[in-house]
């Protein structure tokens, strides 16, 4: 890989520094400058005893900028141990090995990490690659540093073989569950390794890039570490899509080359003037998009205009100023309202906050604008890295982000203990084999955002976008969700396959007995690893259920017994011969329903329930009403419709309930399932019409059945 390719953003940055408008947050540029300086400085030879070694002085400088009171002596001790123990080891590039932990530590220092993280970062490869033991780290630097170093130390290949990589990630994620700083170090470690990947064989580059894409980048996104995420994305892009990368690089070079008119800078000036005139103190910056972002916007818009190569970033002091800026922009420019998003009122799950909008430039080009406070900017760039110790013990702990009240909803507002991580740690326990864990992990992380649904009883559930009621059931009830029969979404009965939207209220209906289990079809509706793993395990333990066909037949199933007579009906016909009276098929009246009779062709009489819609129709047709009444015999025929969620054995259970209630099935129709809901229609012969309410109750009690009613129309 060329030197340029190892650092793809540098071309864009270098090309635009002479425009007079600040292009990017100061932190990003510092991060890169100091990162390179550290690599050079590390070879500068032994340090004087009375001050920090030169190689670590850049780390110290960066650390002091965020934490003026920090105790630097511990960093010096860590550096001395790391340097002496790695001495004689070299990177594949030929540089002394110590350049690697130094560069990783600088990345973290620039993002505002606290001292414990930096100490552990300097030592992060010692236990894995040198004679230093974990006990020694613990004795010299304390439990927290030892915990972090252990968290990022690989499991032994000799013990795990091919499973070493998945098991290393599993170990790291479990350690991250108790201290998110483990993942901060891992992300910075991977960033530096990706920056220097060019020395590896192409196959190895591609393999590492894919794991970075599937696992590390989603983790950086979820932990809100935008600065690391964007650079990792570009590095992966260059390796896995070299042609698109080259096209994008050429487009950026052309658009930002000297002599090109700078469309965004002109809009930035204009916006700055508007805000000054409105008396709003704000910094207006042009932020170049990273390569992958330019590539995405090119795919979205088809072609690129000058304003597509970056966005405007407006930084203000107070939350309220964000809305003031928005108001001015929407007044003085033409806003594209569809692009407006308020991530301040509704922060993303990773704590990202900003207002997003877009305005039309005078030439019609679209300019995307991000509006945020300085604090929001820091959180957006550094995410959890800047949040300090999750234990709250670090003396120089960074000021925690002031989000919404954490008590309100722990899921969203404690970024050091995110809900998605807790769920991931839950399901990984049920995935003992490394292959299942590894594929489930990548599938889980591939979901790019979360939704929050409200539980009908209390509380909320955080789920990946695209989750269904099946996922909600397992997220809320664990293995008890095997007995799930159905769900109400926003108060309405909904099939388990229903895809939930952010803000939906979901109530899960569980069978009281333990007979029912998940159907194989649930796997089609389960998107979360927790649900998939639990359903698969149950089906493996119950092969007879897995082998069953769908819960209900695919084609309508009808059975009909002989048509014996219904309840006794009489028509009172003055000066006319008696006529046979039949219960109308549309509403199947039974005693003691109020009934209305009509004479129909052929001379017979049909009796409808008085409320049946057919009665109105007959009146409009001018059909004569015939007085009808029930006879003495109590037996009757009735048609009932049972609405239910499909499951194996449902038909058997329903007919059993009907027989137990003393009714006889005259005919039955089972419609093919529609999104797991099935409709059974039974025409039943009862010996006593008074038993009808009991019969309907017995049918409703069958697990899976949520409604039983009389038909109005067959
Ligand atoms: Mn490392």
TrEMBL record:
Keywords linked to the UniProt accession: Kinase, Transferase
Q: Where is the ACT domain?
A: 639-713
The UniProt record lists the TGS domain at 449-510
The record's listing under SMART domains reads: HDc, RelA_SpoT
The UniProt regions of compositional bias labelled Low complexity, in chain numbering, are 546-561
Q: Name one GO molecular function term.
A: kinase activity
| Region named Disordered | 387-418, 546-588
Instruction: Give residue ranges for domain HD.
Output: 97-194
- Family per record: Belongs to the RelA/SpoT family.
Per its record, how is this protein called by name?
Kinase
